[in-house]
Design brief:
Blueprint: E1 11-15, H1 44-56, E2 61-65, H2 75-83, E3 90-95, H3 100-110, E4 114-118, H4 124-131, H5 136-148, E5 154-160, H6 169-178, E6 181-187, H7 205-210, E7 215-216, E8 226-229, E9 236-240, E10 253-256, E11 261-263, E12 272-273, H8 279-291, H9 312-315
Parallel strand pairs: 1-2, 1-10, 2-3, 3-4, 4-5, 5-6, 6-9
Antiparallel strand pairs: 7-8, 8-9, 10-11, 11-12
Helix pairs in contact: 1-2, 2-3
The structure holds S-adenosylmethionine and iron/sulfur cluster.
S-adenosylmethionine (SAM) binds next to β3, β5 and α9.
Length: 317
């Protein structure tokens, strides 16, 4: 279905939990978040019902995210039920990957095709510092499992943080020479970023300056990420620049939070609960959310932070 600006809204991102087994400094408070009561979190049956209604309106791709989607009990069954939805063409997940060696085989069998894994650094002490409690070896085991199990594509997400990992751009890009992955750099967004301030923001063009050998990828589809390649490399590089070059004009997304709110725009406070809606009322709410999707969010910059009243772990990125 098209929104009022003519954009075809075909992509639903579903946050299945706001909880996580890591505490990334730019995403979560150090103490984590309080576990919500059962009735505050959308039951998985309702997630499936919303997804079914969304697919009937033209959603073709669903991404499960969080918090950490792999800590939500019942995630494999959810994947199985979503994969069976007629009309859905792609089912993807964004995960920190730590539980992928355990859950990956069942998720693959259940019908999950593609995964994005968060990997901000290749240095163990830095991984521990940025995630506060994580171990790099667990994240790398998740990457290994993703490749072994044949998820395709496998994309890696690194949030670019000045003074933290901007000296690792070359090493992260070099992964694409060894592995068939898309290494994506994401600009740090000003939303609940704890200790990080404006000085930590690094525009994505810094990647092109750090690795001049990168050339535009022939298969750049003009989507959210600008794609590049090292000549002859099996992998690719993606630049996601929500601050320096926003992509609102081609935004095709709708979001569902773990507590059951539809969010037409990541950076707007606009949202509507669909937790209690079924049948025609649910379809009507989805339709309205699509029609009321703003043309663009307010200017996003470190002196003009996001207007959403939620943190990233609640929305899912
Ligand atoms: N737990 C999963 C993970 O880490 O991949 C999924 C949820 S996480 C909120 C989704 C994505 O949002 C991750 O790639 C993470 O790096 C990114 N993210 C979180 N906070 C961010 C921020 N302030 N700016 C830019 N990206 C952010
Ligand atoms: Fe957890 Fe992902 Fe947020 Fe890190 S970015 S705290 S892994 S939800």
């Amino acid at each position: 279905m098209r929104d009022s600006f003519g954009r075809e809204i075909s992509y639903l991102r579903i946050s299945v939990t706001d909880l996580c087994n890591l505490r990334c400094q730019y995403c979560m408070p150090a103490e984590g978040v309080e576990k919500k009561c059962h009735h505050q979190i959308l039951p998985l049956e309702q997630v499936v019902e919303i997804a079914r209604a969304a697919v009937a309106l033209g959603i073709r791709k669903i991404r499960l995210t969080g918090g950490e989607p792999l800590v939500r009990r019942g995630i494999v069954t959810l994947v199985e039920q979503l994969a069976a939805l007629e009309g859905l063409e792609e089912l993807a997940m964004t995960t920190n990957g730590v539980l992928l060696p355990q859950l990956g085989p069942a998720l693959r069998r259940a019908g999950l095709n593609r995964v994005n894994l968060s990997l901000d650094t290749l240095r163990a002490e830095r991984y521990r510092a940025i995630t506060r409690i994580g171990r790099l070896e667990d994240a790398l085991a998740g990457l290994d499992a993703a490749l072994r199990l044949g998820f395709s594509p496998v994309k890696l997400n690194a949030v670019l943080i000045g003074g933290f990992n901007d000296d690792e751009i070359g090493d992260l890009v070099a992964l694409t020479e060894r592995l068939p992955v898309e290494m994506r750099f994401i600009e740090l967004m000003p939303m609940g970023t704890g200790d990080f301030g404006p000085g930590a923001y690094v525009p994505c063009d810094r990647v092109l300056q750090a690795v001049p050998a990168l050339v535009p990828a022939e298969d750049d589809s003009g989507g959210t990420a600008r794609r590049y390649r090292l000549p002859g490399a099996p992998g690719a590089v993606g630049l996601i620049s929500p601050l320096s070059r926003h992509f609102c004009a081609s935004c095709n997304r709708l979001r569902l939070t773990a507590d059951g709110y539809l969010k037409p725009c990541l950076h707007s406070a606009q949202e509507q609960s669909v937790a209690e809606l079924h049948g025609a009322a649910l379809t009507e709410a989805l339709r309205r959310a699509i029609l009321e999707k703003p043309g663009c969010h307010d200017r996003l910059a470190w002196d003009s932070p996001t207007k959403t009243e939620r943190t990233m772990n609640e929305i899912g990125g």
